[in-house]
Amino acid sequence: MILYLHGFRSSPLSMKSRLTGERMAQLGRSAEFLAPQLPASPRQAMEEAMAMVAGVPPEELSIVGSSLGGYYATWMAERLGCKAVLLNPAIVPMLDLSKHVGVTTEYHSGKPFEFKQEYIGELRAFEVAQISKPERYFLIAATGDEVLDYRDMVKHYAGARQRVIRGSDHAISEYASYVDEVLAFCGVA
Q1: Strands 33-34, 62-66: pairing kind
Q2: pTM surpassing 0.90?
């Protein structure tokens, strides 16, 4: 089972989510791919995500998280003992997202939503100061990320499997070149 968690203002319609789902479908495993639309509230997002995978044994679960979804994936992997793939993950979203408090829109639908000040506090509850088992993690970080600093990611996931892409961008525009490597790490052949 793969749970894909999108980033801030993103959705299951993101390029990385779609490519991952399409590849799972090509492998005849689309029923093992979940990509929910996460609510703006971090508390609610994590409650819903945890409920979606309740009862899935940790050895059968991998979480793929992009940006803010990577922050969430790390917290979930620490709680559940499963694998996680982090795609340009947010390390300290409380700082990065504080400037986004207010009404904004989803990238793929244009649908407005409110990111409330209280959500900054909710994010703190999901902070993982240090990962406990680096072998459960696979970081893909781009040096050309225009939103987050890849060096923070490399440091935070020290000891984990890491692929640092020279150049690229926050979206990892060439993600199609890495999707099979992501799925292989997750145990999907």
Answers
A1: unpaired
A2: yes
The answer to whether the beta carbons of residues 66 and 88 sit under 8 Å apart is yes
Q: Residue 167 and residue 142: Cα distance in Å, rounded?
A: 6
By C-alpha distance, which of 108, 50, 102 is closest to 80? 50
182 phi/psi in degrees, rounded to 5: -60, -50
**Is 2-185 assigned to CATH 3.40.50.1820?**
yes
Q: Can you tell me the distance from the alpha carbon of 130 to that of 155, in angstroms, rounded to the nearest whole number?
A: 10
Say if CB 42 and CB 122 are below 8 A apart.
yes
112's enclosing H/E stretch is: strand 112-115
**Per the structure block, which two tokens stand in for 24?**
């799972």
pLDDT tens profile 4-29: 999 998 999 999 999 999 999 999 99
